[in-house]
Design a protein that fits this description.
This protein has 496 residues and is mainly alpha-helical. It has a domain of 214 residues. It is built from 19 helices and 2 strands. The relative contact order is 0.10. Helix 3 crosses helix 19, helix 10 packs parallel to helix 12 and helix 13 packs antiparallel against helix 16. A two-stranded antiparallel ribbon has the order 1-2.
């Protein structure tokens, strides 16, 4: 029996149904094992779909046998397949590495609930990627957001509570703005299915409700994606969350909102609203540039390691938005590739942070002086992933930054200004990564680790797996490039 046509539904149904079952797994370690198995299944499903759509095809599934636009449709194309690989890959890697960290940070009685929330977040994020109608994107957005609030607040750090409250307020505002925009479009077109919406919205493209809806949806999704200057919730949420939750969300959380923003912008609005392409560029490009430069500058002076890396994520989101704002195939190729490569680099960096946290409870950078002497493998993994974040040749980060520079060179009179911004921000990344490396390797120790030695082997192996993936996809980037290229062509052709 060929299960390929059913994979879009299984991608969401498997973790969604498993989440309440994991709560029943009370014996110690059993909830982690069950959640890990489901996360592994979700990754295998995403990989199978990515292979099926790598040639540019689209997998479609009608829930309950009701065809769109009357029924709920799920669709997986190259862009969503790339995102699903990021979501499920990050979820699998983080949950495999989570056992030691979660055992230390969360008491055994609450662990089944924690892993259940993890699977709900995984199902919600995957659901956003496969949903083919605007309302179900909102439904899955709320599932993933509510589960993420639980995950961030689930650790022992009480500072996570005000961070989650700010995240909840900003997330609710973003979701409300998005829903208002979708409601306005539904009022004018009578449909929620994205493909049907594209076909009908051209008839009312000149009306004010549609133009206002475009603004509401863009701002709402920008809040969710932490696009500068709507990013204020992100640094604290990532800093005070349990370490493995930070690994998971930093790799894929905001990228899902970026995906929806790009999909709406190109698939619905640019295809039908006269002049929207230019308006989108004038709106997104300055925000992307400011995010890249301001966030990189702030990261250079952050004294806490997790907060420094969290702040740098705002700059990396800026790179993705910058490529999309060009509205060219080269720019979208760079954006899609950087979605994938940044997940590798930042996921690896936060895994290295989790390793350091096994012996250094205070993750202020000056307290990590000399840590490379007692934790050489952890420090080396941090260096490899840091080089990828900077964009050093031979790493995955270099590929996407090279593509971004190539796309910027096509932008006419402002080409060299944009190239200079990318290069200057990369030099700023050198500064904020090098200061950590210098502290780990070249400064005398000011605090002794709680117990000398490396992180647990299971955590260290996963960290090095991701670090080596940064090198592997830097030397052989064909797979993400193929998906990103096909996604760029479909978005510009408005056929997804």
């Amino acid at each position: 029996m060929d299960l390929t046509p059913h994979l879009p539904a299984l991608q969401v149904v498997a973790p969604l149904l498993a989440a309440p079952l994991v709560v029943l797994l009370k014996p110690r370690g059993l909830a982690w094992a069950g959640a890990s198995a489901v996360a592994g299944l979700a990754f295998c499903i995403a990989l199978a779909m990515a292979r099926a759509v790598s040639a540019g095809a689209v997998l479609r599934y009608d829930m309950g046998g009701w065809s769109a636009p009357y029924g709920i449709e799920l669709a997986v194309g190259p862009f969503s397949a790339l995102l699903l690989l990021i979501i499920t890959g990050a979820g699998l890697v983080a949950i495999i590495a989570a056992r030691t960290s979660v055992n230390r940070q969360i008491d055994a009685a609450r662990q089944p609930l924690f892993y259940s929330a993890w699977l709900l977040a995984l199902a919600g994020l995957a659901g956003i990627a496969v949903a083919a109608d605007a309302f179900n994107i909102f439904v899955f957005m709320e599932i993933s957001s509510l589960a993420s609030y639980v995950l961030i607040a689930g650790g022992p750090d009480r500072r996570a509570l005000p961070a989650v409250f700010k995240y909840l307020i900003m997330g609710t505002l973003g979701a409300t703005f998005y829903l208002i925009g979708v409601g306005m479009i539904y009022m004018m077109t009578g449909t929620l299915n994205l493909a049907d919406m594209e076909a009908r919205i051209g008839e009312v493209a000149h009306t004010n409700p549609v133009l206002v809806a475009a603004g509401f949806i863009t701002i709402g999704l920008a809040l969710k994606a932490a696009v500068f200057p709507l990013h204020v919730w992100l640094p604290n949420a990532y800093t005070h969350a349990p370490h493995m939750v930070t690994v998971f969300l930093a790799a894929c959380g905001t990228k899902v909102a970026v995906y929806v923003l790009i999909r709406f912008d190109f698939f619905v609005f640019q295809a039908n609203l006269p002049g929207h392409e230019l308006q989108s560029t004038f709106f997104l490009l300055p925000l992307a540039v400011l995010g890249i430069l301001v966030a990189s500058a702030v990261a250079m002076f952050e004294g806490h390691l997790k907060r420094r890396l969290a702040t740098s994520s705002v700059a990396q989101i800026g790179y993705i938005i910058l490529g999309a704002s060009f509205a060219t195939e080269a720019g979208l190729l760079a954006s899609g590739t950087h979605l994938f490569n940044h997940a590798l680099a930042k996921g690896g960096l936060f895994l290295a942070v989790a390793c350091l946290a096994c012996h250094y409870r205070d993750l202020r950078i000056d307290q990590l002086a000399g840590a490379a002497r007692s934790m050489p493998f952890t420090s080396a993994a941090f260096v490899v992933c840091g080089l990828s974040l900077i964009g050093v040749p031979g790493t995955a980060g270099f590929i996407s930054k090279w593509l971004l520079i190539s796309a910027a060179l096509e932008q006419g009179d402002f080409a060299w200004v944009l190239v200079a911004i990318v290069l200057v921000s990369s030099l700023m990344a050198v500064v904020y990564i090098w200061r950590v490396v210098e502290t780990l390797y070249f400064r005398p120790a000011v605090a002794q680790p709680s117990s000398p030695g490396e992180a647990p082997l299971s955590l260290l192996l996963v960290t090095w797996l991701v670090a080596l993936a940064n090198i592997g996809f830097g030397l052989a980037p064909q797979f993400p490039l193929t998906l990103s290229s096909a996604a760029a062509q479909l978005l510009l052709g408005h056929t997804l």
